[in-house]
Amino acid sequence: MNLVIQGVQPLAAAQIDSVRAALGHGAPAPETVDAHAVRFAFGETPPSEPVRTGLAQVCEAMSLDCAWLAPGRMADFAVLAMDMDSTLITIECIDEIADFCGVKDRVAAITEAAMRGEIKDFAESLTRRVALLEGLEATALEQVYLERLRLSPGAETLLARAREAGLKTLLVSGGFTFFTEKLQTRLGLDFTHANRLEVVDGKLTGRVDGPILDAAGKARELRLTCQRLGVPTARAIAIGDGSNDLAMMAEAGVSVAYHAKPKVREAASVALSHVGLDGVPRLFA
């Protein structure tokens, strides 16, 4: 197993010393990944669970991410699958759309409950939220894209490293095609799938046009993409933050919980709670 420690700021010698102390005697020497990360290459037997728990507490106190992962290279994978809202980008698009018609608080509350898994049926939660947008001028979508949508820190670095390693990129979202299609063009993504908002006479109808892409749909799109490329889903890396991503993440060989809800962090192979998306390629450096 490899242990990768990384931080938003360049690692200080005192931080690395604290990590080494938490690991105890017999730990391998740290190897520098870059200024922000070090790797400890353990053998087949990683430290005991109490040691790992103590290390996690030490790292959290220093706002560092620690990840245990089998050794490997990014080039060992074939697909990078990503959620969009609060993962590839910093916002929840539907919440920002709702702000233009004065119902952001109501929509955001449903969004948060759905991402925590408190509303079990994603299709129900999306239907309820989209209904609150009825009558909004469709031009508001362009305003959200131009004025509020921002890429998550490190997103472009992640995508560049994935391309260099030969991975195909898949953006699969319970959000909306208006945004995924723009991001596909802007970022050169290979595949995108999302829900389509129904627009009539230039206004949102409060309905989704076609079947809703939910958690099962995300997992299905990952499987279909891998089938199209002739690779098993074990050669996919999946990144998400909410309960709607769990099924997709379970299909992948490596799953990354990015600034995620507790339920997602617990289920993922790796959780990144401090660093940006550029922390993903460091896991495989």
TrEMBL record:
Q: What class of enzyme is it?
A: hydrolase
Can you quote a single GO CC term?
cytoplasm
List GO BP terms, alphabetically. L-serine biosynthetic process
As its record notes, the protein acts as a catalyst of: O-phospho-L-serine + H2O = L-serine + phosphate; O-phospho-D-serine + H2O = D-serine + phosphate
Record's PANTHER family? Answer: PHOSPHOSERINE PHOSPHATASE
NCBIfam families documented for this protein:
HAD-SF-IB (TIGR01488), serB (TIGR00338)
User: What name does this protein carry?
Assistant: Phosphoserine phosphatase
